[in-house]
Amino acid sequence: MKRILNVLMLLSGVLLTVGCSSIPIEQHAQPSFARNQHQPSHLKDVLAASLQQHSGQSGFAIISEAQQALQSRLAMANVAEHSLDMQYYIWHDDLSGVALLSAIYRAAERGVRVRTLLDDYTVLTADADLARIANHPNIEIKLYNPYGKRRSGSFARTLAFFGEFGRLNHRMHNKLMVADNQLAITGGRNIGDEYFGLSDRKNFVDIDMFAVGPVVHDLSNSFDRYWNSDWAVSIDSIRSFDPFSGELEILSAAEIEQVLQQRMQGYPTAPYTIEMDRQQLLAQVETIPSLLRWSHATVTADPPRKDLEQQLEPLAVIELLTQLGANAEHEILISSPYFIPGTIMVDGLSQLNQRGVEVKVLTNSLRTNDVAAAHYGYANIREQVLATGTKVYELRTDSAPGSLTQPQSKRGVELGLHAKVAVYDRRWVYIGTANLDPRSQLLNTEMGVVVDDPILAQQLAKQLLGLMTQKSAYRLHHQQAATCWFWIDNNNFEQQCSEPNVGWGDALMMKLVELLPIEEQL
Fold first, then answer.
1. Which of 32, 191, 500, 506 lies 20 to 30 Å (CA to CA) from residue 374?
2. What does the radius of gyration of the chain's CA atoms come to, in whole angstroms?
3. How far is CA 234 from CA 28, 56, 109, 121, 292, in A?
4. DSSP output for 128-192
5. Cα 434 to Cα 56, 276, 321, 337, 431, distances in angstroms
6. Contact (CB, 8 A) for 396 and 487
7. What is the DSSP letter of 422?
8. Mind giving me the DSSP string for 361-410?
């Protein structure tokens, strides 16, 4: 029933008349920019020798393990001396979200300027907490394309969404964290327990990347462009604009620290130690140079006002991925959690296979997909994709990627795929936020980094191919007018020529999505 309601709500939005904008206008907002990379800092000292040795190049390291992904962000918040810039689609009010709030608040107490830009689509549950810490003179929090009204309750926000569908349907899907304009993390992970192996319901297979060197300057420029956009509005201005937001209890710095610590202690015990000690986290930062591969890279990011500028500028991320695909000569490995290729992309896949380029795509199965409507859209084009010769793999909920996702004590929790990565000819690596679907192409803003490095490409290819084994994923074949799923279970080879785990409601929704004009919304 929940899946049916989700699709019906999506359809309702398509049918509504586009509303007028109600974003608060900040009369006295001043633009701000990334801090100078030449400012002395401990982080600069840690990276100095490596940067000098690899002058003109940037350094990269893949972050696959869930625990490392969280600890790296906490370490960045603790090592920062001048600035922390963060840009996320989701920031959950849970253990990992509160831990990072605590870390950035402590950074602000040390004098670090903190700029946090969040998409407003999922912020409601943490709204008061964010506004409260934004009272700190060193912290500024902005919301991208905000709802404007902060009325409590998801129903009111749903009404607002439908009332201004034309504007609010555009979301910021970027994910980025930069410390002192020296060290960055970008990739697929949002801030929430399911991205760091901490959830008791579902945890995601996801991939991020460390970046240092000249590429960080480009990432910071992308952040600044969004931060200074007219769709990025301070949370203080939004709450002032809305008389329904309620009074905000003002707490002292000590009281806020106490509240955050109490909140962390109130969550279930984590399956691994979440290190909050600053000295221990600083020691982790010291190890980063030994992890890095050095090469040249390209940062790609959509314009902040994709709704207006897509007619004036190339669709940066999708255009670059299309170009990389067209230039491939031997092999393309892709992980796209939501995979809904349009007619042009299907034709492109066919041409690649005709040229002898092997294309392998890993995506979610119905059971692992956290957005059911996206799976319905994918299911309706799946046979066309298989007909091109593309090899398709669907992650199983009982996949065994090991520490890539979950520590030992959490391995009974279901899995989902969230990594948006690709490897081209075992030379070029893409790690970013874009799915191969209409929403990433037309509606959401996306970003990513393309690195030219065969060794990094081999590292990522090994991880992707490991996830594509039949012990971790279904391998799909189209044979005798039917699509069949093949997998290995307890060393036994299994096959089924009907989609696994599909109930009558799922079958109905697949047919409904096929008939309705909502493909661009998926």
1. 191
2. 22
3. 11, 36, 20, 15, 36
4. HHHHHHTTSTTEEEEEES--S---SSHHHHHHHHHHTHHHHT--B---EEEETTTEEEEES--BS
5. 27, 31, 10, 10, 9
6. yes
7. E
8. EEEE-TTT-S-HHHHHHHHTTHHHHHHTT-EEEEE-TT---GGGT--GGG
Q: Structure tokens of 513? A: 């999505």
Residue 363 phi/psi, 5-degree rounding, is -140, -175
Convert 370-395 to b/e letters by CB count within 10 Å (16 or more is b).
Answer: bbbbbbbbbbbbbebbbebebbbbbb
Indicate whether 20 pLDDT > 50.
no
Close Cβ partners of 507 (under 8 Å, ≥ 6 residues apart)? none
Q: What whole-number distance in Å separates Cα of residue 444 and Cα of residue 421?
A: 17
End-to-end CA distance of the chain: 19
**Strand 139-144, strand 113-119: pairing:** parallel
Chain mean pLDDT for the chain? 87
The tokens for 493 are 């080879």
Q: What does the alpha-carbon distance between residue 12 and residue 518 come to, in Å, rounded to a whole number?
A: 10
The pair of structure tokens assigned to 441 is 């192409």
> Which ranges of 234-342 does DSSP label H, i.e. alpha helix?
235-241, 253-265, 278-286, 288-291, 306-309, 316-327
Cβ atoms within 10 Å of 271's Cβ, excluding its own: 18
Closest CA to 451 of 324, 289, 302, 313: 324
* Coil/strand/helix, residue 310: coil
Residues facing residue 485 across a β-bridge: 476, 496
Helix (H) or strand (E) segment spanning residue 414:
strand 414-417
Q: How confident is the model at residue 237 (pLDDT cuts 50, 70, 90)?
A: confident
Instruction: Give the residue carrying structure tokens 């955050």.
Output: 260
Q: Which residues are catalytic?
A: 173, 175, 180, 418, 420, 425
Tens of pLDDT, residue by residue over 444-473, are 999 999 999 999 999 999 999 999 999 899
Measured between alpha carbons, how far is 120 from 25 in angstroms, rounded to an integer? 16
Whether residue 520 is predicted with pLDDT greater than 80 in this model: the reply is no
Provide the pLDDT for residue 408: 47
Instruction: Please give the Cα distance from 388 to 380 (Å, whole number).
Output: 15
Rounded distance between C-alpha atoms, residue 195 and residue 176, angstroms? 14
Tokens for 380?
A: 């309706």
* Token pair belonging to 84: 């922390």
Structure tokens at 48: 């100095």
Domains recognised in the chain with CATH numbers: 2-24+58-290 (3.30.870.10), 298-514 (3.30.870.10)
The length of the chain, given as a count of residues: 522
